[in-house]
Amino acid sequence: MKLIKARNLHRDLGYFYIGLIISFAFSGVLMNHREHWHPEKYTTETKAIEVKLPLESEINEKYAENLGKTLGIDDKMRRHNVKKGTFKISFEKHDVEIDMKTGKGEIVSFFKTPFISQTMKLHKTDSNWWIYYSDIFGISLIIIAITGAIMIPAGKFTFKRRGWKLALAGLIFPILILIFLS
Asked: What residue intervals traverse the membrane (predicted)?
């Protein structure tokens, strides 16, 4: 009876979360490579600019918004910062980067990539309800893993005879990566 319940729970949670598992896996692979290319958006135009910037201490949100308007950008500003000598302003459809010393930079115009940008939001959102849903999903993945491990009742492929070795190897590998990358 315990085996049948484990199989049913494993199957039903798997069915329920199949869409989320696929979209998380898909967007996770894309997120892993976001430094090499920008899967979330594609560039439609890049324009060189040169502006006279004030001192870094005088750059604030109002200045960034006004500069955007001066440069002909009419979409909503998301954030701005000065880091490593570069002034960056992020808008909904434009990115601006300007060298603080020379005032030279560029405006990059882009569109969000359909479907891909939406799935990547799953990894980045900080909405309370999504965090709780993701926690439930994480717990369900643990249940799916455990029920999957105990579903084979007898034979040479059981968790007790063979599965624990693979599970241990699967656990050791990311631990070693974390140790060597830290």
From this structure: 12-31, 130-152, 164-181
